[in-house]
Amino acid sequence: MRKSILALIFCSLPVFGAADDYQKLANMCIACHGSDNNTAFPSIPNLKWQNKLYLTKQLSNFKNGQRQDATMTKVAQLLSEEDIEKLADYFYTLNHQE
């Protein structure tokens, strides 16, 4: 299962050149975390209502190795600092539009 998820994520990565880059990046997150940011998998955290600073810090920690997870470390290492900021903005804004 984990290999299938990684394959899905890595197949999505070459799409970073289009105008909707960050929607495509967000779709990578949604593949595991769920389309409504509520995951059916207890081991995968819920992104709904997460603070932007928290999301940025956790992605940065996965990227630099301070936090470990086989999937998230590999995904985060492919993200630029700008990607991390944009993803944190995206999920924070998406979840606070009520």
3D structure, described in words:
The protein is mainly alpha-helical and 98 residues long. The chain has helices spanning 2-12, 21-33, 52-64, 70-77, 81-95. The chain has a single domain (2-95), classed as Cytochrome c-like domain (Cytochrome Bc1 Complex, Chain D, domain 2, Orthogonal Bundle). The longest helix has 15 residues, at 81-95. The chain starts with a helix and ends with a helix. Residues 13-19 have low confidence and may be disordered.
SSE topology string: HHHHH
C-alpha-based Rg, rounded: 13 Å
Stretches where pLDDT falls below 50 for ≥5 residues? 13-19
Task: Fill in the CATH topology.
Answer: Cytochrome Bc1 Complex, Chain D, domain 2
Helix content: 55-70%
Number of strands: 0
Q: What is the total number of structural domains?
A: 1
Q: pLDDT average, as an integer?
A: 80
What percentage of amino acids are in beta strands? under 5%
State the separation between the terminal residues, measured CA to CA. Answer: 35 Å
* CATH class wording: Mainly Alpha
- Number of helical elements: 5
CATH homologous superfamily label: Cytochrome c-like domain
Give the overall form. globular
Computed structural class: mainly alpha
Sketch the major β-sheet.
Answer: none
CATH second-level architecture: Orthogonal Bundle
